[in-house]
C-alpha cells in the first residue's frame, strides 16, 4: 500500500487553517453561552416575580421543574465560559506561564501547532457539549413553562 505525504508547505497551511478554525469555534461557543446565560437569567428573573403568587399546584410543580432545568442549564453555560487554566498539556498558555524565558524558548524549538490544535479541539468539544446540553435543558424549561401556563388556565 502506498501512502502519500503532503508537501511541507501544504501541511503548514493546513495546520494554520485548523488552528484558526478551532480558535474561532471556541469564540463562537463563548458568545452563544453568553447570550443563553442572559436569556435564562431573564426567564429566571421573570419566574421569581411570580413566585409569591397564589398559583394552582400543577402550575407550581411545572414552574419549579422549569426553574430546576433553567438553573442546571445556567450551570452548564457557566462551565462553557469558565476559563481552563490547566497547564499539564505542554501546549497552551497556562503551561507556558509556569516556565521561565529559557524554558519557553526550548519548548518553541519544534512545531507545536499540532499539539495546540489537539488541546484546543478537546476544549472546543467540551464547550460545545455543555452548550448543547444547556440548550436542550432550556428548551425543556420552556416546554414546562408552557405546561405551567396551561395549568394556570384550568
UniProtKB/TrEMBL annotation:
<keyword id="KW-0812">Transmembrane</keyword>
<keyword id="KW-0547">Nucleotide-binding</keyword>
<keyword id="KW-0472">Membrane</keyword>
<feature type="transmembrane region" description="Helical">
    <location>
        <begin position="33"/>
        <end position="50"/>
    </location>
</feature>
<feature type="transmembrane region" description="Helical">
    <location>
        <begin position="62"/>
        <end position="81"/>
    </location>
</feature>
<keyword id="KW-0051">Antiviral defense</keyword>
<keyword id="KW-1003">Cell membrane</keyword>
<keyword id="KW-1133">Transmembrane helix</keyword>
<feature type="transmembrane region" description="Helical">
    <location>
        <begin position="134"/>
        <end position="153"/>
    </location>
</feature>
<protein>
    <submittedName>
        <fullName>Integral membrane plasmid transfer protein</fullName>
    </submittedName>
</protein>
<keyword id="KW-0614">Plasmid</keyword>
<feature type="domain" description="Pycsar effector protein">
    <location>
        <begin position="15"/>
        <end position="149"/>
    </location>
</feature>
<dbReference type="InterPro" id="IPR043760">
    <property type="entry name" value="PycTM_dom"/>
</dbReference>
<dbReference type="Pfam" id="PF18967">
    <property type="entry name" value="PycTM"/>
</dbReference>
Amino acid at each position: 500500500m502506498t501512502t502519500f505525504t503532503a508537501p511541507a508547505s501544504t501541511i503548514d497551511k493546513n495546520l494554520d487553517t485548523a488552528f484558526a478554525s478551532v480558535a474561532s469555534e471556541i469564540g463562537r461557543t463563548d458568545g452563544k453561552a453568553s447570550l443563553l446565560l442572559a436569556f435564562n437569567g431573564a426567564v429566571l428573573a421573570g419566574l421569581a416575580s411570580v413566585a409569591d403568587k397564589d398559583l394552582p399546584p400543577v402550575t407550581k410543580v411545572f414552574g419549579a421543574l422549569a426553574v430546576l432545568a433553567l438553573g442546571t442549564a445556567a450551570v452548564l453555560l457557566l462551565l462553557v465560559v469558565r476559563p481552563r487554566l490547566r497547564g499539564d498539556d505542554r501546549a497552551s498558555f497556562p503551561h507556558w506561564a509556569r516556565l521561565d524565558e529559557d524554558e519557553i524558548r526550548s519548548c518553541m524549538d519544534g512545531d507545536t501547532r499540532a499539539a495546540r490544535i489537539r488541546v484546543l479541539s478537546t476544549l472546543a468539544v467540551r464547550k460545545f457539549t455543555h452548550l448543547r446540553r444547556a440548550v436542550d435543558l432550556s428548551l425543556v424549561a420552556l416546554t414546562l413553562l408552557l405546561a405551567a401556563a396551561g395549568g394556570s388556565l384550568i
